[in-house]
Amino acid sequence: MPVIELKIPNLGESISSVTFSKWLKPDGSIVALDEPLCEIETEKANQELSADSAGKLTWVAKEGEDLPVGALFAKIDTESLAASGRAVAVSSTATGSCEPPAATATANYATGVPSPAAAKILAEGNVPPASVSGSGRDGRITKEDAVKAVDSSSGESTAAAVAVGSSTPQAATTSPVNSQPPTVNSFSRNERREKMSRMRRTIAKRLVSAKNNTAMLTTFNEVDMSAVMALREKYQEAFVKKYGIKLGFMSIFAKACAKALLEMPEVNASLDGDDIIYHDYADISIAISTPTGLVVPPIRNVESLNFAEFELKVKDLSVKARDGKLSLEEMTGGTFTITNGGIFGSLMSTPIINEPQSAILGMHAIKERPIAVDGEVKIRPMMYLALSYDHRIIDGSTSVTFLVKVKNLIEDPTSLLLDL
User: Fold this and answer.
1) pTM
2) For the chain, which domains are there?
């Protein structure tokens, strides 16, 4: 078949349409097999689509266009490739590699295609096959090629991770701030209209659905952060030395919530029609703010992770979220959510439930306030906590008891560490 039609693939049961974000290759350009062509935006994450064959690319879809699954977005003319006499193995200029491409006169089915072992290594290292020059027969990407590519990209990934995780992991979720504010003329009456991104539209739809379809209430409490802050100050240096990452507040709150969730399964449950689904594990979704919107990827089996493992997972998800590299699998699931508005300065809020979950915990800014301690007024670092919950599943007494359990574990972290 001289002309191959490229269509929007099936990306999951819940995804029926996508937004065509941008082209990565010019119209009429010669592309290689598996070379990234474009970027699409789903309601959960961004994703690149690659070429199914080598040849001349013809655009069909337009940037910013909404397309249903199965819609035609491009065509590749394989005869144009033969006529041009060009080898479409990814060149060193295209891939940014200093190594020459595989020594093949023309591309074939193996050019730029990783072996099964190499594909696994590249996927785990988040390195696209199109950026790797294959040294195997006919330009195939070997296991050694994949290992070198992942190693060479680790320096850049580490630099990005350090930038994101320079303070506590939850601080890494803040969206970047523009270095220069837009210039506004005096008495300006200018306006601009921009189409909402698919992610923003999905967020809006789900928030309205949660408000309209759940019996949502919020209960509040406050927690003395003195013990946790003292714990972090005492062991932070040793923790970083051993695990290579800082101990943040988020991991302590997540572990406290996981313990309380397993003790009170109603808060960890969800509704499915007339049935209640109880979970014997705590998959806690962490709200991460990105330039394109809020994402809540879950960290699975938090009850079984130690603090360092949790912090590393938060760091990894934060980097992927800000780079738009979260996979659909990483965005799916979760039995409970934690959001930290305190990193933006919020003193108190009422977070909205992340459906189909039945509860969400809101952390807030730590402020020194005078409180009564053993009959004396003392200044302590205090944080307001908010638990929004679905009253159809969770009774008021249950929600209050859950929040008090979390408060007690935070104020006495030794009992959390000893699993008391």
Assistant:
1) 0.62
2) 1-86 (2.40.50.100), 95-164 (no CATH), 198-417 (3.30.559.10)
